[in-house]
Design a protein that fits this description.
By secondary structure, the protein is α+β, with helices and mostly antiparallel strands. The chain has a single domain, classed as Urease, subunit C, domain 1. The protein has three helices and three strands. It has helices at residues 2-11, 18-34, 74-77; strands spanning 57-60, 78-83, 86-90. The protein is globular.
């Protein structure tokens, strides 16, 4: 299912700008988790790049704000994938 998430997010541009879609999928979700109290499974900050935060970073080959379709094919367009500070893909 993860491979289709980008395509599903890209479809949201029918109602939102690419910037709004990317923000909802990243920092807005982190803010929602932060206010969920004991249901939040993450003890550290999310959605920010800061010391002690859980670092999930993507480096995309292009600008997804200008071309949201880049997130539809992560295998091709995501050059670096890092989750919880661990690099899972690095093609740079």
């Amino acid at each position: 299912m993860a491979t289709r998430q980008g395509a599903q997010l890209a479809k949201l541009t029918r109602w939102y700008t690419p910037y709004e879609v990317l923000k909802m999928a990243t920092s807005a979700n982190a803010e929602l988790l932060a206010i969920s109290g004991p249901r939040n499974p993450y003890p550290h900050a999310l959605g920010v790049i800061a010391e002690g935060a859980y670092a999930d970073l993507l480096i995309v080959d292009g600008n997804p704000i200008q071309n949201i379709k880049l997130i539809e094919d992560p295998e091709k367009n995501f050059l670096v994938i890092m989750k919880n500070g661990i690099v899972y893909k690095n093609t740079l």
